[in-house]
Amino acid sequence: VDEIMLKAGAIVKADTVLMTLKNPQLEAELRQALAKLKNSKTLKRQLILRQQREMLNNESDFSKLEAEAEISMLQVEAERTLAKSGIVAGVKAKRNELKAKQLVKQVELEKIKLEKITAVHREALLIQDDLISQSKEEFDVAMQMVENLSVKAGMEGVIQRSSLNLGQSVAPGTELALIGSLSPLVAEIKV
User: Fold this and answer.
1) Which of 21, 90, 138, 173 is the most exposed place for a label (fewest CB within 10 A)?
2) How is residue 190 annotated by DSSP?
């Protein structure tokens, strides 16, 4: 028993706090749950930053490859007409055309890769959101258990008996206080 707010004879409402109990183990669990929740939120922010960095690098590489493919296609177009007139060797023109086709294919593959990376990033964020939800639930349970250490009257009435002292340890199921109703009782007895 950490604190006793009201003694026997006090009039109480249903939500009146009568006393607070202390449980260091529950308080430690609450601190751990809070730390785990904060950690999972921090991990999500770190994940987002890593994903943004990765996407920037991939998009930059994709842009360079796309530009290289376009330049190569322009070169093929220019060499095609020159090869027909015999100014450029046909083998060189064919080699550049093959290189251009490979670059175009590589651009397509990089585009698919970017789409898949985006999907993987989205899934990773969903997984992290699930971990945050689990941590939040653990924190809420721990918070509820600590809040339950505040003993409330539960009904309107008068405290008839409270035999606890400060610092006293109590086991689960121990009577902490007895509240009597303020409303008159009517009983009909048949003999």
Assistant:
1) 173
2) -
